[in-house]
Fold this sequence. Notes:
Layout: H1 7-22, E1 31-36, H2 41-51, E2 61-65, H3 75-89, H4 91-98, H5 108-114, H6 122-136, E3 144-148, H7 156-169, E4 175-182, H8 189-194, E5 199-202, H9 208-217, H10 224-240, H11 244-259, H12 264-278, H13 284-303, H14 309-326, H15 330-346, H16 350-363, H17 369-383, H18 388-391, H19 396-409, H20 413-427, H21 431-442, H22 449-452
Parallel strand pairs: 1-4, 1-5, 2-3, 3-4
Helix pairs in contact: 1-2, 3-5, 3-6, 10-11, 10-12, 11-12, 12-13, 12-14, 13-14, 14-15, 15-16, 16-17, 17-19, 19-20
Amino acid sequence: MNNEHNPIAQLVTKIQQRWVDEVSPHEQLQLVRWLIKPDQARLYEGFLRLESTPNGSLPEVTIVLLTEFHSKEAHSKALIKDWVTYFKEDKTLQEALDSRILKFDWDVDVYENKLTSEDTDFDLLLLEMLNTFQKAMPNRQQGLTLALFPYSVAYPKEYNSWLNAITQQGLPKKARIMFFDHVEERYYDDVMDKQKDRAKTLSVTLDLQGAINKIAASGDPNDPEIQFRQCMIEMSKSVAKKNLSRLHEWGKKGLSVTQKTGSKSAMASAHVIYAGMLFNFKEYKTIETLLQRGMSLARQGLETGDDTCKPVIIQTYGYMASCKQLQKEKETASDLFCKQADISIEYGFGPQALTAWWLGYNVIKKRDKKKYKEIVATAYNFGVTIPPEMLKATCMPFIAADHFNISENDREKERCDTIHTFMVDVDGEEWRTKVEEHRKEMEKKSLSILNWF
């Protein structure tokens, strides 16, 4: 990652240097927040993964946990469980310990055993783990950072409360918590204010898109794939500049470039990407023409055995549906979303079907109650066939809540109980409350596949 010619590595170096300059020298800092933009999340995740290996450059030892946050009551236990699992499954670490190459006398089994105890205060146990782990390190003067980067946070307010509860207990000496916040929303200002004597907020100006563009444009300039990447970069710039004629110029060039590949999948993708850019200009007739051509190319590719055409076909149905929706052709849009769901299942992308059905039934909710109920039931009945752990990152809670509300209105108490029991396993006892909170956050957005997921 220290390759000076790698644009992404250069950004990671900037992140590392900010920490080294503003955090490492100050032992009193125990709660450190990064303010980041959503599109930077993968970059920061890469930074954390690097720091959790011997190739990291921070002075402190860094433990990285990506544990999802569901509730303040359950989070510490979930973190402990994941920490224990990662420690035991790290083969390199275990080999070093077994061979006595690494002097690290820390009994992880103590904490694994306490996970099953009903009397355990897991907040205190997590702090104890931090303390004993740091003291067991070969260099006891070295700091320990617990980096928390949850894949999802169900309740930002509850996460704020959990952070407050943990830090008020008192973090062990030479231990820190690193966490992340949305630069515009700043969900966790409260905990930072309460812990201001030992808290620090960091941010770094990062031209991530510029770095991505440099990588995308690197390589053989005569390679059609490299040429198309350049076309996509220029199309994106045209959208940012609101320059429709320039977008058409680069879009057509992208179609021409991909023809050289002979790949139906590449040609179909070029049509779909070009069409997607045109949504910003409401060029619906051109969008529909491009999508129809893209669909035809993808189907031709699939007939020859190219399975990479399957996701292109699924995406094209979604764009077709959104195009109809934006033109107020809601019944057609709903049918296309449902077709997208059917194709997703046929091609082995089951969880994507849930999103398609959800968008499909919301489009016609107010004008066709019967069809609305039918699609909700279809979506829910398929959703329950998917393992609960796979449903956590889908819109299943919304579908279940809608099915519950319909059943409640129809006075189907037994069905309501069944839905609730299933969803408790997926998202906890308060799953319906969480859904309503998420709905409020989403009310500002337009219900379209273009900007929901």
